[in-house]
Design a protein that fits this description.
This protein has about 300 residues and is an alpha+beta fold. Helix content is about 40%, strand content about 25%. The strands form 2 sheets. Strands 2-3-1-5-4-9-10-11 form an 8-stranded mixed sheet. The chain has a 3-stranded antiparallel sheet with strand order 6-7-8, covered by helices on one side. It starts with a helix and ends with a helix.
């Protein structure tokens, strides 16, 4: 009998542990259900990267960050399409735009908008001094037709010859397209493709994202938020992350979290995904705190 009661005790302990795990998981699920989902979370997006302070070094870093997100899109099985790409002389990147489409793409990528800062010795530096350079990422949700309607009469569409690299073809056809939204003055252009039709489609895609973003920002301004994790314009001018190469350290300033192994992080796989997941959890927590304080009032 003592042996039997010992077995029962162990069985009961295992059962308790299992139930406690289940309760914790259910509590977590309830919390997630309380957090209102943003209408944009299921959207695809347009990502814009721009070199900031630091000349050629900033452009090289911009190219590395753009490649990191391209690999991240592949890791998440999203579709990544380059809409605009303006390289610099020594292999860097001045400015580029890409569309990213796939399951919950915006829900994850929205945390990447802002100023990214790099600290390292540039390849062009003779004295071995550490330089600080920056680049900016803007993440714009792509609207569905239902969410954003544009009157064709409000658009002025211009075509011109593409400029820049591209050999003979560049100067022979009016393939570059520029679209102006007359009421707002918002402009988008594309000369990435050889076909004028494809360039028009891509320019239109960028224009829609810009207009939709302006509309969303107008709405979020009304519910002005003091959160640490900012999405949209306010977040764009904010330094969100530092990549310190000599110390092999990446620091996200919004959640004061540092991780090591730069090479692994820049692959755009598990480490970047974990950082984004942590930001997402922190933002969910902030949303929940907002709801609780609103209810208390």
């Amino acid at each position: 009998i003592p042996d039997e009661s010992e077995d029962f005790r162990k069985l009961a302990e295992r059962e308790i542990a299992s139930c406690e795990e289940e309760i914790a998981e259910l509590k977590h699920q309830i919390v997630l259900l309380l957090i209102p989902s943003e209408e944009t979370d299921k959207s695809d997006l347009v990502m814009e990267v721009t070199a900031g302070i630091g000349g050629q070094e900033a452009m090289l870093f911009t190219s590395e960050i753009f490649d990191m997100y391209q690999r991240y899109a592949a890791y998440k099985k999203w579709k990544f399409e380059i809409l605009e790409y303006f390289p610099s002389e020594i292999g860097g990147l001045r400015h580029a735009v890409a569309s990213i489409a796939g399951l919950e793409a915006y829900k994850y990528m929205k945390f990447e908008g802002g100023v990214h800062r790099v600290q390292r010795v540039p390849k062009t530096e003779k004295q071995g001094r550490i330089h600080t350079s920056t680049m900016t990422v803007a993440i714009l949700p792509q609207p569905t037709e239902m969410r954003l309607q544009i009157n064709p009469k409000d658009l002025r569409i211009e075509t011109k010859r593409a400029s820049g690299a591209g050999g003979q073809h560049v100067n022979t056809t009016d393939s570059a397209v520029r679209i102006v939204h007359i009421p707002t003055g918002v402009v988008s252009e594309c000369q990435q493709e050889r076909s004028q039709i494809r360039n028009k489609e891509k320019a239109m895609q960028m224009l829609c994202a810009k207009l939709y973003n302006a509309k969303l920002e107008e709405e979020t301004k009304k519910r002005n938020s003091v959160r640490k994790i900012q999405i949209g314009t306010k977040g764009r001018s904010e330094k969100i992350r530092t990549y310190n190469f000599p110390q092999d350290r990446i620091t996200d300033h919004r959640i004061s979290r540092s991780v090591h192994h730069m090479e692994c992080f820049m692959l755009g796989e598990e480490m970047l995904d974990e950082m984004i997941q942590t930001l997402k959890e922190y933002a969910d927590y902030e949303s929940l705190m907002d709801i609780i304080s609103e209810n208390e009032e």
